Amino acid sequence: MSVIDNWDQWKDFLSERLHQAENEGMNQGVISDIAYQVGEYLAEQVEPKNEQERVLAELWKVADENEQHAIANMMVKLVKHEH
Which Gene3D superfamilies does the annotation name (predicted)? Predict the structure, then answer.
């Protein structure tokens, strides 16, 4: 099973990367930009593997760039507050 197959594993993976970035001294602006770039990559290159990812993919497709940044920031907040 890939990390992307399971929503909870995916959030855990993102949380670990977030903590790693923070421990390396990355500020919130850099983290936000990276989250946006990851969102762009996933939207263009990765087929959603579960219902949650399908919802995010559909939202990303209809969002403008500012809204996409907001989605990326919300994912960062989600994993930050859960772990």
Answer: Protein of unknown function DUF3243
Q: Which residues contact 65 (CB under 8 A, 6 or more apart)?
A: none
pLDDT in tens, 1-42: 455 667 788 788 888 888 888 899 988 888 888 888 888 888
The number of residues in the chain equals: 83
Ordered by start, the domain boundaries in the chain are 7-82
Domain 7-82 matching CATH 1.10.760.20: the answer reads: yes
- 41-65 CB burial, b ≥16 within 10 A, e <16: ebbeeeeebeeebeebeeebeeeee
- The span from the CA of 60 to the CA of 63, in Å, is 5
> 32 exposed, middle or buried (CB, 10 Å; 0-12, 13-18, 19+)?
middle
